[in-house]
Design goal:
Length: about 375
């Protein structure tokens, strides 16, 4: 369903407009710049594109591994996607049968020669530069037109989880597993400064690895504030339970303004995986949680207490529609069996599934077909 005239922003009236199903888990989601489509990607190596008006679905198979991130060109039908084999692909997201425009194999090589993971993809404001980052701790800038490497940016000490372009179009921020947020000048490649979000990282002597990190980043509309999602106070290196949190910084000064936390104690075992800032300064987050129950949390432009909260399934990303009135979340759907899907017969395996849930951030129409979100 595609609303012709979205109502006034009112997060307290949030309702579910669509549920778009897929037979494998999905970890990334995004609305097209034109607002008519939503794309998602995850475990099955595909990009999945739904037309919002009727829910029709197309699938694109150009990857050999999980897709870790993708981004749209702001003026064309090109989408840029990176996978866990380190491959970067440019293709038309509306033409399912078309061949990719270009492909960069081993765009992020690993330290041992094995492929490195691409975890995040974004584009400069003018659409000329594709930004990729991942497990090799290097940010690479590519020509969006022909896929040629333009520059490499180094300065992170751990795996890079997230990237985001400032509204000025040429300032980049990137967040890593150690809780460091680095600001870059895309035109020169200069590392400008580092913001400390280290509270989102935990490494105790008994841990086998670093846990946590800056899982997601977002700016408000004028770029004066930056929000970072993750978790704090991680209790163990097994299943990595911790407390979800969003940090909000004044971007000019770098000062930490607020630490935002969910109200419900059920959300105490996983990170915030998606965060966005609405036009009125409202911060919204989606969590991923071990026990499959999470919350969609809303905080006003000031204060630390949530202004609204919805119980929702565990989710892995959060996208804001160009109209500012819709959110999309790829959520977990269990396969009906306990454990990871293995059955008594070795040849039988039933994977978990996913839905892309589209939330509307205004009062629902007076229509019995409109499904109100619980809570």
């Amino acid at each position: 369903m595609e609303p012709g005239n979205p109502g006034e922003l009112n997060v307290a009236k949030t309702w579910i407009g669509q549920r778009l199903e897929h037979d494998r888990q999905l970890y990334r989601v995004g609305f097209s710049p034109c607002g008519r489509y939503v794309l998602a990607a995850g475990q099955d190596t595909k990009l999945i594109c739904w037309r919002l008006a009727d829910g029709s679905k197309k699938e694109f198979s150009n990857h050999a591994s999980w897709v870790g991130g993708f981004a749209f060109h702001p003026q064309t039908q090109w989408v840029y996607s990176g996978d866990y084999h380190g491959t970067l692909v440019c293709r038309d997201f509306q033409e399912a049968e078309a061949e990719p425009r270009w492909t960069q194999v081993a765009a992020h090589p690993g330290e041992t020669g094995a492929p490195g993971w691409i975890r995040s993809v974004c584009l400069s404001g003018d659409g000329a530069t594709v930004v990729t980052a991942g497990s090799d701790r290097v940010i690479r800038l590519w020509s969006s037109d022909d896929g040629k490497l333009q520059r490499e940016l180094t300065g992170h000490g751990g795996d890079i989880f997230s990237t985001q372009i400032h509204p000025d179009g040429m300032t980049l921020v990137s967040g890593d597993v150690l809780g460091q947020v680095v600001q870059w000048d895309l035109a020169t490649g200069e590392l400008l400064r580092t913001l400390d979000a280290g509270v989102l990282h935990t490494r105790e002597d008994r841990f086998l690895a670093d846990v946590g990190g800056v899982r997601c980043l977002a700016f408000n509309r004028d770029g004066s504030r930056l929000v970072c999602g993750g978790m704090t106070d991680i209790k163990s290196n097994t299943f990595c339970p911790g407390y979800p949190a969003v940090l909000e910084f004044d971007f000019q000064s770098g000062q930490l303004l607020r630490t935002l936390r969910a109200t419900k104690k059920v959300t105490d075992d996983g990170p915030v995986q998606g965060v966005r800032v609405l036009e009125d300064g409202t911060v919204v987050s989606q969590g991923e949680h071990l026990h499959a129950q999470s919350t969609l949390e809303f905080w006003g432009a000031e204060g630390e207490a949530p202004v609204h909260s919805l119980p929702v399934p565990s989710g892995y990303d959060l996208a804001l529609h160009p109209d500012g009135r819709r959110l999309a979340v790829p959520v977990y759907k269990a396969n009906g069996r306990s454990g990871n899907g293995r059955h008594a017969k070795p040849e039988e395996y039933l994977p978990h599934k996913a839905e892309v849930v589209v939330y509307h951030l205004y009062a629902p129409p007076e229509n019995p077909a409109a499904e109100k979100a619980a809570g």
